[in-house]
Design goal:
The protein has 418 residues and is of the alpha+beta class. 26% of the residues lie in helices and 24% in strands. Bound molecules: flavin-adenine dinucleotide. Flavin-adenine dinucleotide is lined by residues 35-41, 60-63, 67-70, 72-76, 204-205, 233-237, 241, 257-259, 293, 336, 338, 363, 365-369.
Length: 418
């Protein structure tokens, strides 16, 4: 039997060689340290090495890569956001999936099935027209459908009057769909380590050090690292880390988002269907399961606990607008953390309050669809020290300047009463 040794020196069966990303011992210094082995940390490291030749980079992950939202999300991608700042960012993110699949030589399983955002009132139809105009202005395909056209697009939908929130129409967004989330984690880890990046799993960042207004290092559960640059991209944990380690308070609340899958079924529907009024969305995975989620639990919470209330809510909502699912069994339920800003737009900033400090957080439930493009531009920011134009509107100080973005409307979260 072949014995290999893991990063921690413990013997492992011959499987270690088959891993698609490499293990390395931790060095005492790096050009950059990234806290968080999630989607954004991995993507930033990949682009630092690929686009900027900066491969002396360490990713610190306190558990295992994909442990956070990266491995828990429902994998939906789309670009029909609300504001002129967000739409171009998410459009480029959508365009990057096929590019990354080729570059990483790893099948990310982009299923370009399109998204249908159901609309349940005339007011919602009117507001959707604004979203559609913004999207079309930025070259993003998005159309308004009436109830009959929506039913033609997705025959499984109930468009009768006999439901709590009858369907008036839908916002149809053909370029969106679903990408396999764990493939994105593995593919980026493979791509980054191939270019020389070190990934240190089971290694928690415990302190960030500064000297004369500049970043000087990071303490970890595996020892101290000297570095002039630190990126905090730790998902739901970012705000706590930044406050504890640098004393900067972020306007972020952390809430739980839950998701579930049903037993596998024959092909029933083809799009990602979501409803703001019912607070539920669903799509059928390539395995046949119905993956379904909803908006987050409305109270701040650092746990990933699931609730019976949520199961009941999903069952009731889905059986109204997708009645063919009545009686189908749920197989699994899980929860993850969402870091929410007041305007539901992220915070991407750098060199403030100390030189060499960068943050990429506040993604709520938009952090999967954005990770590719954000990695690309955060890498540029860290390598060159200047904020790329596309990221500038997302600086932290917009919150104290009362210049919030109004990205909440991207959810098409219109109740029938507004
Ligand atoms: C149920 C659910 C459904 C979702 N659905 C979607 C969706 O369909 N589409 C979409 O776009 N988004 C979705 N999201 C949101 C998305 O998953 C997150 O926004 C995204 O994962 C954020 O990426 P990240 O890289 O910033 O953080 P994460 O992916 O959460 O990674 C952060 C990592 O940092 C690590 N970490 C924390 N503290 C430390 C420390 N001190 N030292 C070292 N490492 C540390 C964590 O262990 C974690 O692995 C969903 C989220 C959930 C929970």
């Amino acid at each position: 039997m072949v014995l290999n040794f893991s990063e921690q020196g413990t013997p492992m069966l011959g499987l270690a060689k088959k891993r698609i990303w490499k293990y390395n011992f931790m060095k005492s210094s790096y050009d950059a340290v990234i806290i968080g082995g999630g989607l954004h940390g991995l993507a930033t490291a990949y682009y630092l090495a690929k686009e900027h030749g900066m491969n002396d980079v360490a990713i610190l992950e306190k558990r295992f890569i994909g442990f956070g939202g990266a491995g828990r999300n429902t994998a939906i991608v789309r670009a029909n956001q609300r504001t002129q700042y967000n739409v171009p960012l998410y459009k480029e993110a959508l365009d990057l999936w096929p590019v990354l699949t080729r570059e990483l030589d790893f099948n990310l399983m982009f299923n370009n099935c399109g998204n249908l955002n159901l609309l349940h009132s005339e007011a919602a139809m009117k507001t959707a027209r604004m979203n559609i105009s913004t999207a079309q202005f930025h070259g993003v395909e998005s159309h308004l459908l009436d109830a009959k056209q929506t039913k033609e697009m997705e025959p499984a939908l109930n468009i009768s009057e006999d439901m709590t929130y009858p369907i008036h129409g839908a916002m149809y967004h053909p370029p969106g769909g679903v990408v396999r989330h764990d493939a994105v984690v593995w593919g980026l880890a493979k791509g980054a380590t191939k270019l020389g990046v070190h990934i240190h799993q089971q290694t928690e960042a415990t302190a960030i050090h500064t000297e004369n207004g500049k970043i000087s290092g990071v303490s970890t559960s595996g020892g101290r690292i000297n570095t002039p640059r630190v990126l905090v991209s730790a998902g739901g944990y970012s705000a706590g880390i930044i406050f504890r380690m640098l004393g900067v308070k972020l306007p972020i609340s952390v809430l739980t988002i839950q998701a579930m899958v049903t037993q596998p079924l024959k092909p029933l529907f083809n799009h990602v269907v979501s409803s703001g009024a019912y607070h539920a969305y669903a799509n059928q995975t390539l395995k046949g399961e119905i993956a379904t989620g909803a908006h987050m639990d409305p109270w701040p919470n650092y746990t990933t606990q699931t609730t019976a209330y949520y199961i009941k809510h999903q069952a009731e909502a889905l059986s109204e607008f997708l009645p063919c699912l009545r009686g189908v069994k749920f197989m699994r339920i899980w929860g993850g953390l969402a870091d929410m800003t007041p305007d539901m737009a992220p915070i991407m900033d750098g060199n403030d309050p100390v030189e060499g400090f960068y943050m990429d957080c506040g993604w709520g439930y938009f952090g999967f669809k954005s990770c590719s493009v954000v990695g690309k531009y955060m890498a540029e920011f860290m390598a060159e020290g200047n904020c790329p134009g596309i990221l500038k509107p997302f600086h932290l100080r917009r919150c104290e300047q009362h210049r919030l973005m109004g990205e909440t409307a991207a959810l098409v979260n219109y109740s029938p009463d507004n």
